[in-house]
């Protein structure tokens, strides 16, 4: 019986860790998306021939506003898509977790 309880505890901890990891990544990507929004709104009212800089990995690259806006817009759209996929995965995992708890009659004891 102790080995079965231990297996349930490990599975429970795995579910909790997965949910926390997904939530943290969604928040992180949300902050990145917000930063892209700020930069895009700033560049929108800027002369398109004005030079600007953007970070690519750890290198600062000089470019102009005209070429930077489409790149940032694409990255922002990709971030939004990734966030939506992760939210869907979070919901699916949470539902799986609840079903697993119900099927195995798991009750959480708070201390």
TrEMBL record:
It holds the Pfam family Prefoldin_2. InterPro entries: PFD2 (IPR027235), PFD_beta-like (IPR002777), Prefoldin (IPR009053). Keywords: Chaperone, Coiled coil. It comes from Candida glabrata (strain ATCC 2001 / BCRC 20586 / JCM 3761 / NBRC 0622 / NRRL Y-65 / CBS 138) (Yeast). Signal peptide: none annotated. GO terms for cellular component: cytoplasm; prefoldin complex. One of its GO terms (biological process) is tubulin complex assembly. Residues 69-103 form a coiled coil. GO terms for molecular function: tubulin binding; unfolded protein binding. This is Prefoldin subunit 2. Belongs to the prefoldin subunit beta family. It comes from the Eukaryota.
């Amino acid at each position: 019986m102790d080995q079965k309880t231990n297996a349930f505890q490990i599975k429970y901890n795995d579910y909790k860790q997965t949910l926390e990891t997904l939530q943290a990544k969604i928040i992180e990507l949300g902050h990145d998306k917000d930063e892209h929004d700020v930069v895009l709104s700033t560049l929108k009212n800027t002369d398109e021939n004005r030079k600007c800089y953007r970070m690519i990995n750890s290198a600062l690259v000089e470019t102009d506003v005209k070429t930077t806006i489409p790149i940032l817009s694409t990255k922002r759209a990709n971030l939004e898509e990734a966030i939506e996929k992760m939210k869907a995965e979070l919901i699916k995992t949470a539902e799986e977790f609840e079903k697993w708890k119900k099927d195995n009659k798991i009750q959480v004891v708070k201390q």
